[in-house]
Amino acid sequence: MRFEILHTTGYRYEEPASEAYIEARLTPPARPTQQILAHDLLFDPSAPSSSYTDYYGNPTTFYSMVKRHEHLSVTSRILTETCPPVLPAEALDLSVGEARQIFSSVTTDVFDYLRASPAVPTGGEAADWGRRWLRPEAPLRAALGALNGAIHRGFRYVSGSTENWTPLTRIWKARAGVCQDFAHLMISVLRTSGLPARYVCGYIETDPPKGGRRLIGSVATHAWVEVLVPGMAWVALDPTNDQWCGEHHIAVSFGRDFADATPLRGTFKGSGGQQMKVKVVMKRTA
Amino acid sequence: MKAKARKSPLWDEVFAPDGGPRDVYRPLLDLILALPRGETKLIIERLEATMREMGVTFDIARDRPWGKRPWFCDVLPQLFGGRDWEHLAAGVRQRLRAFEMFLGDIHGKKEILRAQVIPSRPALGSPYFQRPAVGLPRPGGAFLHLSGLALSRLPDGRMAVAHHYFSNASGISYMMQNRRALSRVFAGAFQDRNPQSIADVPVSILETLRALAPQPTGDPVVALLTPGPGSRAYSEHSFLARRMGIPLVQGGDLLVLDDRLYLKSVSGLERIDVLYTRVADAWLDSLVFSRDSLLGVPGLAQCVRRGHVAVANAIGSQLADDRALLQFSGRIIRFYLGEEPVLPTLRTWWLGDIDQRDHVLDRLDEFDIRPLYGEPFAHHAASRQDDPGKLRKLLNDEPQNFVAQPRDAGAVTVCLDRKGALDDRRQDHIVFALRCPGGDYEVFPGALTRVSPEDSAFTASELGGGSKDTWVLASDEEVGPRALVVNRSAEAHAPQAHVTSRVADSFYWLGRYLERAQSLAYMVGVIESLETEELNRAEQQLYRPVWNRVLPPLENRESGRKRGISSALERYHLVLDGREEGSVSSTLRRAAWNAGQIMECLSVEAYGVLSHLEGRFSRARFRPEMDKAGLALTTQRFSAEATSGIAEFFGMAESTMLADRGWNFCLLGQQLERAAITANAGLTIFKSLARRMETQPEWPEHAVEIELSAFLRLLGSRDAYRRVYQMRAEPVPVLELLYDHPEMPRSVRRCLGRCAHLLGDADRGSPGLLRTNEAIESVRQRVAAAGWPAYLLPATAASGEAGGGVQLDPARIGDLVAVLTGITEQTYAIHEVVTDGFINHQILLD
Q1: Which of the residues A107, A266, B243, B596 could staple to A22 if both were Cys, CB 3.0 to 4.6 A apart?
Q2: ipTM of this model?
Q3: Contact present, B667 and B754 (Cβ < 8 Å)
Q4: Is pTM beyond 0.90 here?
Q5: Residue B602: which region, alpha, beta or left (left: phi > 0; alpha: psi -120 to 50)?
Q6: Interchain CB contact of A62 with B (< 8 Å)
Q7: Chain B interface includes A104 (CB < 8 A)
């Protein structure tokens, strides 16, 4: 499938800002499931920007604006062609217990995705969920699908119900959240059970396919989970929509949790505060 | 000498088991104990006085880094024999080599973890392992350049490593200050004993830092980044920057443009090549590390990544100081160097490991509990240690954040009291080392020896209240008569080469607020007298609204807020109410706040005058319920005090401080504020005359004179007027005096002329200066071109006096008000130009 995505973030200041610095993780990587036909990133007011690849492999753009300015916007335009993933069948046929065993012998390499991270604590209720849904004898494919579905059913999607920094313990209690929380919950269960997992930030198709249901998470950026399976391959699941990720998902950035993969991080200096507005428009072009 | 009998299981630093002094201490102890008691007392007092005196610039009293008692330096130094020291220094160098390799490995291939020499969790799970630091270029190819390390004696006398301060050599200034103080007051002790000199330490550090510049330039710019005056170690940062002659900067002083780091200084943007940071890794760059940090510089990591600036110690170094790793020191040394550790490590239990936690919790009172990094126990958690219940809860809630070390570490030493008696104290040592270009380390021959306060219930040495100068004797064999080594040449402070925009900004506002407070205090004092002495009720009614607007304008001129001056109570508020915006009291407080931001740039004397004055106001009892006479009296007393106190501050500053570029910004603020107050006052008074001419054409001429005369008095200019004009107050001479007189201290012309002069000294030829000079010049030309007599009625039409008329022409007064309005607005506008030109550099960036 071919998509055109326009992702605009606007900052409005109460008072003109004297300095603004931004790190953007908005450049989608080329992967077997997504070919990037075109991508550009525009900053207004314009200023030279520079790029690097961060610790998690994300192409990252640094922008600094040190002239007084009244508003700032970042626009990312993506043209991409997606195809369904080819899942690593052999790995997914292994049992949860076998996978756990394999990863416990390479902890140094998978440490980041196996341990608690700032926004994703491990243990607690996640351990109960792990025992229930990730039984050692269950094949990975079935267990992951079951956990994905259980999170989907066990938590309500309530738009705007949480902030970026709502702690996961509160989500466990409230049994409701947004896609970021669904992803964090699932990552917490996976890591607690010894399976490495990471957070993915990206887009999901806006328009409902004919006769299909509208997918949640389509007004802004979306978030889901990738699980590392033996053979060091990542497989992607979307607990918010209870599905294995497919051609409707476009991945942009990765990390241990939201904090690592956040699309825009900014620091603004000036006498007033600022408001951020995000708009994502996604069109299927073929 | 009296032998000392001891029961303590701890190592005795000074006395041997037989009760006599150890060999290395014997000569010095004999000398000290043989001093007449009066002389001992004198030396101690002079030492205290010297520490206090240094403490003012060095500000020990304010930050007291290791305890609540004032800092002291003992008369008896800590002595290390040459061979002893060589062993210790070899151990320090070995450890630094190993941990440098460890840092490189963890931020790279992680071989030590793959080989399972140490577990992954304390390394990769450390809160000080900064993932964004992976892959950043390291200055000179290394993480650690200037490091500290804490040593304690074990009960058997061996020196053991207790803490790593590899990333942050905190305390190094105390080592230098102690030597300066002791050598000053007790030079006799140094005679023939030949301690190795540490006078070159600042120069060595500076040379090392300069060599780290990523791109070869003739003259690399090095700056020291501090968290600011809120930091407990601020005085150390300020001391080091001064001794190295490099700018002391805070995050807000720097900006990132084109992936390069710049210092905002009054001369414009200056490229920084090397940043010596005393800000913890996590706060260095809010885009990459902790996002709510205001201490660092957003974009700094990108500048490092692109090789445009060197940050030392390298970002990520803090990992080496995580106390959870201390217990693996031996393995780390063996793994990377293939050597046995020269120095043992003080046994350290990491409570994140459940077995170690159980071991410690079973016998908690045998341990000192410490966080993974730093010394916060001196602040909040010491009380927890007093309360075992709370401490246990903390250790159960977040065990991974704490380590435990045995309490029976650290030697016993003695300190001299005023009577010449010896008191027992506990002690430890922090030694410091600098990386040499070849990759080895130079261990400075000295230390910060910390000793416990006499009344401390704690054995934890970092809670100590004092210190000892620490001598490394040349070598055991070589002790002999050699020249007294007291290097004074390095004591001269290097001049402050750069005035950062933040310092200039604080100076500027200090000047503005002081001028504003002084003018307001003076005016209110005059009004109080006029109210009671000279004017009748009708005149009071008439003038009050005008006077109100003559007062120095509020910060936000558009707010339209009015201040009351009509009653004694309102005037009392205007002077003494600290909560009223724009009162003398609150304006002084703002001035003092700005002074506090740049304390290290002010002389002790000048700062003292200001803090005394501000203290008088902030401590004054606010009693609006007093009767009218009481209110009036208090208002007048405090007005007078502010007026003379502020004048005293400027006088004291000018006679005790360098008239450097920073100070010029204080005078600039003062003169610009004064020009604006005068212009605003002039405009107000002539607007009032214009309105009266319009509404009451029959207004008698002598009433104009009374009003102008009172006005001159408000501005403190009546005597000057009489001296210049020797006539009653008339419109044109008043205008000339206030706007155009070259010698009148309040005149717009003189104030702006001084502004131009001050800036000329500040910097030549920057775009900011050019624009500011243009703005000033344009006001001065407008004043010069005003042609005041043209606004008078022709002589014949008025009183017919010789030499022209004195009455304003009703047909032209509107034009006059327009001219005065223009001058006032333009004067205010200079402020924006100064700010954009020197403080935030918008003009430069255009």
Answers
A1: A266
A2: 0.94
A3: yes
A4: no
A5: beta
A6: yes
A7: no
